[in-house]
Amino acid sequence: MNQIRQELERVQNHISLTKRNDISIKKIEEQLNLFQIGVKVPLLVKPCTIDDGIVTIRKAEHDDLLKNFNLASKQNRIIKFVPASGAASRMFHKLHSAFNHIKDLSLSEIKNKSHSDKNFKYVLEFLLNLKKFAFYTDLKIILNVDDSGIEKLINNSPYKILEVILTEQGLNYSSKPKGAVKFHLYNEESRTAFEEQIYEALNLFRDNKNSIKIHFTISEEHTDLFLDIINNFKINFTETNLDFEITYSHQKNSTNTIAVDAENKIIFDKSGNLIHRPGGHGALLENLNDLKADIVIIKNIDNLSVENLSEDAIFYKKLLVGYLIKAQNKIFEFLTLLDKKLFDEKVLNEIFEFAESKLFINSPEDFKSWDAEKKYNFLFNRLNRPIRVCGMVKNEGEPGGGPFWVKAEDGSLTLQIVEQAQIDVDDEKQQIIFKQSTHFNPVDLICGLRNFKGDNFDLHKFVDYQSGIISKKFKDGIELKALELPGLWNGSMADWITIFVDVPSSTFNPVKEVNDLLKKAHQN
After folding, report:
1. Helices 25-37 & 2-18, crossing angle to 10 degrees?
2. What is the CA radius of gyration of the chain?
3. Residues 403-422: what's their mean pLDDT?
4. Rounded to an integer, what distance in angstroms lies between the CA atom of residue 423 and that of residue 41?
5. Closest CA relative to residue 182, chosen from 249, 251, 232, 250
6. What is the reported pLDDT for 16?
7. How far apart are CA 258 and CA 470, in angstroms?
8. Which of 82, 41, 54 is nearest to 486 (CA)?
9. Quick one: how far is CA 94 from the chain centroid?
10. What is the pLDDT of residue 19?
11. What are phi and psi of 333, to 5 degrees?
12. What is the distance between the alpha carbons of residues 285 and 290, in angstroms, rounded to a whole number?
């Protein structure tokens, strides 16, 4: 504690000198504590599987769930929330890695090198399929050439092609947000990921005034670019009786995290400024909380398909919303009874059976022997929470998190989405359990943010603040420890009611690398 006090004094002196205080002293103290004691490592018990933590929606349920969805849509209850502050640099990483190595090479020389070098093989696939990318026409305009001119450049000077795509000499995609990259081509029309997300929302839900609501989180530096894309979209959109409520927000500086050295001392840069960095997607809980929304569809910016192949994604999104409402209706019915004290032992046991079998809420073994008051307190507390219904796809080797039964501190089991980076790398048993996962988290979440009285939950009350990830980084040649906040769908939603639902792989079509755009889901 003495060290933490000393570190806080150093920060106070820094603030008084610079007059800057992006992160509150309270937050810095909490982060220093986490660096000292370490973040909580989730204890995996087993992967969630079909009928053991993962629900399968039967065809017989479809009509009722779709009715739930359609009513909620008409009642203006739904908004789509798209985390979109990520840069496209990682998407073009492999092209960038090869960029400086192909400066004086022709296509045939790249082809020769591709037999023994996977980076050259990747670049070759990109160049040979250049016409299939939605930004191909933009490339021709910038270079002021026709198709034959592009062919000549591909054959003789592929470096020039990459230069125009990656750098400020042209499209500058390495420095733009992923949402601004053109993903899909429709005859003469090309759509950025931002635009495609809006079109998907249009095909998914509209209220009784024929309007849609969609919210993007974007980085502050790309605000003007984002607004240009949205304004152009509205100008060129031809359907006149539609209203768009397209809003945006930035990740708050107050959610940034500090960096420390090996002794957990706060690191300042060469200019004497506090080193801090964005706290990861968990920081977006602030943005989600600020929405004061009812039902929120959360989807990553890059998980899209061309319009004629998006039927599965849209259909299952409707089912997931309908499933959330079905669960919510029953929860609200029971909470109203509990709130008005309109229950007897039989009703309490009925609520308990529902919570355990339909909501996967684990209760103490001696629950049935408790008196009515104790049962009431337990059930009211466990049911009066935000709820999320999460689509889960078959695990086909994609990197990322999955659904697990996790042991809580009180010994009960809870449903959680866990990333591999959260698991103890030295614990072989935990690593084995993680690798046994049959399903994968595609970030396909439906969230119910209001309680049974219609008021919004304060989402901060349902976070596991002891979770998160501590990793080692380098800055200016100095090794430092960095903290990532509890992930938005991980620790930030740890104390929510959680339901996992099996959805087909056709609903998951991410673009992690530029050549993913060559897959069927992205080709018209």
Report:
1. 140
2. 25
3. 94
4. 6
5. 232
6. 60
7. 11
8. 41
9. 23
10. 53
11. -60, -45
12. 8
Q: What are the percentages of helix, strand and coil residues in the chain, rounded to 5?
A: 45, 20, 35
Residue 1 has pLDDT above 60, yes or no: no
Give the pair of three-digit tokens for residue 360: 């996967």
CB-facing half-sphere around the CA of 280: CA atoms within 13 A: 18
Rounded Cα–Cα distance for residues 324 and 491 (Å): 20
Between 9 and 319, residue with greater pLDDT = 319
> Across 77-200, where does the E strand assignment appear?
78-83, 182-186, 189-192
Interacting residues of 235 by C-beta distance below 8 A, sequence separation 6+:
none
Please give the C-alpha separations between residue 259 and each of 196, 265, 276, 338, 471, in angstroms, as whole numbers. 37, 8, 6, 46, 10
Q: Is the pLDDT of residue 115 over 90?
A: yes
Quote the CA–CA distance of 335 and 234 in Å, as a whole number: 43
Q: Please report, as a single letter, which amino acid is at residue 201.
A: A
Residue 331 in contact with residue 78, Cβ under 8 Å? no
- Flag whether pLDDT at 126 surpasses 90: yes
Q: What is the rounded distance in angstroms from the CA atom of residue 411 to the CA atom of residue 266? A: 35
Per-position b or e across 103-125, b if 16+ CB within 10 A of its CB: eebebeebeebbeeeebbbbbbe
Strand partners of residue 502: 392
CA distance between the termini of the chain:
60
Q: Using CA atoms, how far apart are residues 506 and 305, in angstroms rounded to an integer?
A: 9
- Which two tokens mark 125? 């696939």
Average pLDDT, integer, range 118-142: 96
Q: Please, what is the Cα angle at 306 between 419 and 221, to 5 degrees? A: 60
The rounded distance, in Å, linking the Cα atoms of 225 and 223 is 5
* Separation CA 520–CA 524 (nearest Å): 8
Higher pLDDT, 207 or 77: 77
- Write the DSSP assignment of 360-421 as a string of letters: -----TTGGGS-HHHHHHHHHHHHSS-EEEEEEEE-SS-SS-EEEEEE-TTS-EEEEEE-GG
Instruction: Cite the DSSP H helix spans in 132-211.
Output: 136-143, 147-156, 158-166, 193-204
The 10s digit of each residue's pLDDT in 143-179 is 999 999 999 999 999 999 999 999 999 999 999 999 9
pLDDT band at 20 (very low <50, low <70, confident <90, very high): low
Q: How many CB atoms lie within 10 A of CB 83?
A: 22
Q: What is the pLDDT of residues 213-252, one digit of tens each?
A: 999 999 999 999 999 999 999 998 887 788 899 999 999 9
What integer best gives the mean pLDDT of the chain? 93
Instruction: Fill in the DSSP letter of residue 359.
Output: S
Contact in structure between 362 and 414 (CB atoms under 8 Å): yes
Token pair recorded at residue 252: 């708050």
The model's pTM is 0.94
What pLDDT, on a 0 to 100 scale, did the predictor assign at position 386?
99
Which structure tokens are listed for 232? 């152009």
How far is CA 138 from each of CA 87, 129, 334, 503, 517, rounded to the nearest angstrom? 20, 15, 57, 36, 16
